[in-house]
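Entry for the shared binder. Reason: the reviewer on the internal report wants the predicted structure included alongside the sequence.
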Amino acid sequence: MRAARRPARARLRDRFAASDPGLLRLTAGLRTAGAIALAVAALALLGTDVPHLVAGALAAMVATFAIREKQRGQQAVTLALGLPVALASMTLAAALHSNLVAGDVCFVLLIFCAVYGRRFGDRGTALGLIGFQIYFVSLFVGATVSGLPELYGAVALAFGCSALVRFALVPETPTGVLERLREAFRARLAQLLSAQVELLGAGPQDADRALERVREGTARLHETALLIQGRLAEGTTDEAVARLVQRRIADAEIAAERLGLSLLAARGAERADTLALHLPGAPIPSGGRQPVREEATVTLRRDLEALRLLVLHPVGETSGTALSHVRNRLLGYRDEENLPDASPAVQDAFRAVGEAARAVLGLRIALGGPQDESDDSPATARSREELDAEDAVLDAGEEALSEEPAGLRRPTTRAAVQVAVGSTLAMVGGELLSSDRWYWAVLTCWIVFLNTASTGEILVKGYRRLLGTVLGVLAGIVLAGAVGQHTWTAFALVLLFVFAMFYSAPLSYTLSSFFVTAALGLLYTLLHTYSLSVLVLRIQETALGAACGVIAAALVLPVQTDRRTNELLATVLERLGEVTRSAVEQLSGGPPVELLDQARDLDQALADLRAATKPLTHPVTPLRARRETARHVVALLETCAYHARSLAATAELLPTHPSIAADPRLRRAAGRIAHNIEAITEHVTDEHATAGIETGPSIASLLGRAGPGAPRYGRVTDRVLRHLQRLDEGVAGLARPLGVPVRTSDGT
């Protein structure tokens, strides 16, 4: 098979695409380092001295990383507006250079305005960031009124170099980013399939490690799917195409996740399958520790490898006869008569392989257009017809706008007040430590508030910045001694560290802080202001700034971690209830609704909750019981979200899929799930709530499900019942960790 002999270069490309979806981190690092290098080179050719080289380098960095808009036209406008903002900020800093009180007051007002500007979207955020950072650069290089003309020239040149790199040397278009994200999704899907193959045959000693790989692969695939969803609107010219790709990505993700659950069930872990997949660190259930011993397992392993090869085959490239034969065989498992003689759990794994092959086929058609159909088997032709019918009924829906809080309850206003207070404290304390380097404390206070929303998040971020700063200071001591006064060697290392800082930023804030501190140590060397006491002072100022940020967050309009997580938890439960109700209503024969957007909103709400619980799940937290509770609740919600997404995907198949028919009895069977979600939501939002959840007979028994002899077109499929049952169990499982009363169906 030609696909089996993939060149090493293609394998390396896939591995890199999977590690950095969309090459977003690589692009950010290259673009920022390139802008700095170009600005320094241009200024050096003009004979600029070292302080102005440093000012130009820092201005180029700010002009590059501050702009986050996706469309090139919007980026150009923001960059053009950013230059006068930068010059005005530098002028203000230079004019107030000798007036300590006025300078401090204006700096605090600037900080407030910069943070408040976030309410105006990406452009407001970028302009506020440019204003604050250029003021900081002015303090760093000691800008004065007499030196402004040369500094103006350095900053203007830096902005021009940033524009050149952004739009010409390292261009990035929404279409290109989306294409690379698709490649990353394909690569991560292949990695997940490899982990699932390992899980299938893992022995008792390797079972936990294999399951952990499946967990990681599932989470990374979901992360990439969310990134794609966030880029679809800008990366496609046709809304119908965007919705088609979104649907096919969701199908592939759900099919891959279901395949993993089926493999767990085949190992004898059916009752604990969903929780075992989503709970980090949970061992594989004891019933699933032994590998499957059936003869059909050899065929299953072969088919999993074949499915992986189908995923890896480049989209748009003609598939040979061998690949067509493999595709036909895998799609054949969607028909009962093609399943091998095996236990029900292993047969279900083969069904999952067939559904995953169908999802891969749909994804290839959505991304690469019509495929060669000459070698199609009847099963493959039927799958294509189903996909075509689904594509025909996809329609765009409008998203409802949410009402934003006003006044001090608005997050941007609250954060602006908190940062202003924290920066004032940092300014006073910083000047007590050093009248020359006090701005490091203010910078740290500012940074710990970026992309944080609760006291706990600020505390964790401050701790990570302090740790990275300490390690960076140690590295700076070594590098300063090694580089000495070799200017260009120091600049080369600074570029390397800047690239590493932006490349590692989404992965580790500690690592990013380490690189920026090491780079600053080299900049101090270039400015002839380096000393061990300066680097030690940076640690002190960083610790002070982080402490002031935490104090301001805790005392000024505080948002406690518990309160924020409860708000986000309630949002997740509301989104879960919406998706479940809409899917069940459609499966019961109700009018079609926009399920894709509802499922996307659920995924985003769950991602926000997962980020907000990081302070509770951090390894250094002393509250071990709360950490385990938070992890358990998030895992259960991820399980529920998976089954809700699957129900939504199945409901959207209703108009076109011959094996799924509307069944009005589902409304009654799913009523308990809806009631339990509402009861848990009420308990989360109101500590005095007395509502409890209900437990009782299985969903299938509530449904009064038709027997095996009932017509296939007249009953709900086994898969719908399985997802409803697991969703019912997952929602009920939330009651114990959240302290919600449980009542049986007889009222006890």
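Summary line for the report: Confidence is low (pLDDT under 50) at residues 395-403, 705-715.
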